[in-house]
Design a protein that fits this description.
Helix content: 25-40%
Strand content: 5-15%
Largest sheet: 3 strands, mixed
Order of helices and strands: EEHEH
């Protein structure tokens, strides 16, 4: 897993990482280790489906049902269509 630190104190960016790919147990363990070490993991330029998003975030721990219909939710810095929030 190729990475680039975002700063000296916080964050790591995953390079050439595909959130639509299912990780092996070893890859999932490395992803969790990176999160524990850097406290923030950034993946740029992705357009995951809901299933991809849930699988990726599930590598960090169980998802909590947040919405009234029992579904999960997520926070993003983009709106529908990928337009950045200003």
């Amino acid at each position: 897993m190729r990475t680039r630190p975002l700063s000296d104190v916080l964050g790591v960016e995953l390079l050439d990482f595909d959130v639509t790919k299912t990780l092996t147990p070893a890859e999932a363990s490395e992803l969790r280790r990176l999160f524990v070490e850097h406290h923030l993991v950034v993946v740029r330029g992705q357009n995951p489906s809901k299933e991809d998003h849930d699988r990726f975030t599930g590598y960090f721990g169980p998802l909590a049902e947040m919405l009234a219909n029992g579904d999960t939710g997520y926070i993003s810095n983009t709106v529908a269509g990928g337009v950045p929030v200003k």
